[in-house]
Amino acid sequence: MLKYLGLSERKNFFPSQLSGGEKQKTAIARALINEPEIILCDEPTGNLDKDSQDRVVELLEKLNKGRRKTIVIVTHNLELARRAKRMITLKSGEIAA
Questions:
Q1: What is the pLDDT of residues 74-97, one digit of tens each?
Q2: Helix (H) or strand (E) holding 94
Q3: Which fold has domain 8-95?
Q4: By the 8 A CB rule, do 89 and 97 touch?
Q5: Under 8 Å between Cβ of 44 and 73
Q6: Average pLDDT in the chain
Q7: Amino acid 70: pLDDT
Q8: From the CA atom positions of the chain, what is the Rg in Å?
């Protein structure tokens, strides 16, 4: 998981030695390592550069399609939201679409 997310060389670093993006990817790896049936993601690509965003989204798509994992993503990123099979839009706490 660390290799896939580009963190192999940082595996022995303390959290204070990681960038915001590296911390984000570490949190994603930690959440996925135990093979959960349902994956809840709150802005999973928020602090990541474009390459890292693509890797994370690709990984989530592989888990959804290949391992049949249910993934719920909360995001303001419309590009990411449009890649979902189903999108629910909220406005002021109410379902808008």
A1: 999 999 999 999 999 999 989 998
A2: strand 94-95
A3: Rossmann fold (3.40.50)
A4: yes
A5: yes
A6: 91
A7: 94
A8: 14
Task: Show me where the domains of the chain are located.
Answer: 8-95
Q: Which helix (H) or strand (E) holds 23?
A: helix 20-32
- Are 38 and 72 in contact by the 8 Å Cβ rule? The answer is yes
Q: What is the pTM of this model?
A: 0.79
Q: Which amino acid is at 47?
A: N
Q: How far apart are CA 28 and CA 58, in angstroms?
A: 13
Strands 70-74 vs 38-42: parallel, antiparallel or unpaired: parallel
Residue 70 class from Cβ within 10 Å (0-12 exposed, 13-18 middle, 19+ buried)?
Answer: exposed
Assign 61 a pLDDT band (cuts: 50, 70, 90). Answer: very high
Q: Distance (Å, rounded) from C-alpha 91 to C-alpha 5?
A: 33
